[in-house]
Sequence to fold (229 residues):
Amino acid sequence: MPSPLTTADLLALPLFAQLTESQAAALLVGQITLEVDAEQLLIIQQDEGEALLVIQDGLAKVRSFTAEGDEVVIALLGPGDLMGEMAVLTQGVRNADVVALTPLVAVKLRAGLFRDLVLHDARVSLELARLLAVRLTALHARLLLRGADATTRLLAVLQDLALTASRGRDPLGPIPPLPQRELAVMAGLARPTASSTLAQLRERGIVKVDPQGMKITDPQALRKRGLLV
Fold:
């Protein structure tokens, strides 16, 4: 069974790094650990925002659907990332689904305590604003890539997955095994296109695929497409 989130774990997250030990301990009171399988919904669009969730292990996607019913992936989330903070703050409904991409462990924290922290601690408010700005920048970059070629779009998704899995540290890090249909949706490609593009990347030695997952092995391929500085 997964270990509960400790005050040290919470204080290691940028959003909560400025809290005192007592504030962190208070936020963790009543925490609930969730273990879910891949493809299971963690947050459902239009549900009430009654709790904040923190991912301990695993990957998830934030998604919504167009008027035509097409799935759009808004963001990827991994260890240390928050889920559901906007609905908690607005005391409204969730504006997107969050779905596990891999087996995932998350901790549910009480909404009221988090809301009080944001309202009364300027340091937490500023860090939350920074976090939301980073996510908005990432979403803007993702939207711009919609006009790119299939290879660039798929490589961007693989790099994003590697960064998310490594807490933003390694764009060439290991990526857990994922169905090709998930890669296709994240890249905004038809599944046959995503499959053939991935096969070409493997043949060219740019991406390695094995039972343990995937890994980008040629950073120059990312640099050529402006994906890695």
